[in-house]
Description:
Layout: H1 2-20, H2 23-32, H3 36-63, E1 68-69, E2 72-73, H4 75-103, H5 117-121
Antiparallel strand pairs: 1-2
Helix pairs in contact: 1-4, 2-4, 3-4
Amino acid sequence: MLWLQTLPAFAIWIAYIVLTRATVQQRKARYARWSRRARILAMVFGIIASLAILVCGLLLLETQPNLANGGGLTGWGILIVTLMGLLYIHLQTVVVSITLSLTFPETRRRYGASESRDTADSRPGENL
Length: 128
């Protein structure tokens, strides 16, 4: 029955992902201004912190009797799981944004405003 208790938390996590997916590109542009070293350190810290949140949350649920009992989670336990998952997902979207800023750096346009890649790369008479 644990999966049934955590189903609302799962729905909240999915909704959070859907609502924040548009901000990934904005964050990518913001992180692109950071130095490469700072982005790598922030990315590693984000991965370690998200893992620590999951481990600490699991330990908290295991050691606190008012969060979980033999029949499953209590209301406070479900709240802890939901918040822990939201924080984990948020850190992972930050890590993805930083990774994208490292993997796909902003590049300058190689073509003029009126040229497109298709016309610059094609030979005369080839598109007839």
